[in-house]
Amino acid sequence: MDIDIGIKKADRAKIATGLSHLLADTYTLYLKTHYFHWNVTGPMFNTLHLMFETQYTELALAVDLVAERIRALGHFAPGSYSEYAKLSSIKEADGVPKAEEMIRQLVEGHEAVVRTARSIFPATEKATDEASADLLTQRIQLHEKTAWMLRSLLEA
């Protein structure tokens, strides 16, 4: 059945492509955060272990929201590691870094998600896709706040 939600097919495709990049970034950041949760050591172990758990739990929920928005726009959501590797702007962790480096990488990851989300706004505005714009706004707010909180752990 054709989709008639007031957004042109080409606009839906462009937004879904952007959201696929956002989904890949979010999933990659989820995986990295979960990995760091399992492997963090050092004097900040308890704090970081719990903080990373809160963050990866939120990211797991976000992945579903982004994927469902892609589906609502009439496109299939990517869902394999190989697709995410092609679409994501976030690099996987190489080995098990020290706690401070984990924090740095997660700050960079959250900032990357923000940049990806921001890059989709022109397409949502052109198409008057308020639902996607609202999702992007919420994601930006959360990732900027999380990056700030993580960054504060690195201050001397």
TrEMBL record:
InterPro entries in the record: DPS_DNA-bd, DPS_DNA-bd_CS, Ferritin-like, Ferritin-like_SF, Ferritin_DPS_dom
CDD domains tied to this protein: DPS
Gene3D superfamilies listed in its UniProt record: 1.20.1260.10
Ferritin/DPS domain boundaries: 19-155
Top-level lineage group: Bacteria
Annotated family: Belongs to the Dps family.
PANTHER family xref list: DNA PROTECTION DURING STARVATION PROTEIN, GENERAL STRESS PROTEIN 20U
Protein name per UniProt: Dps family protein
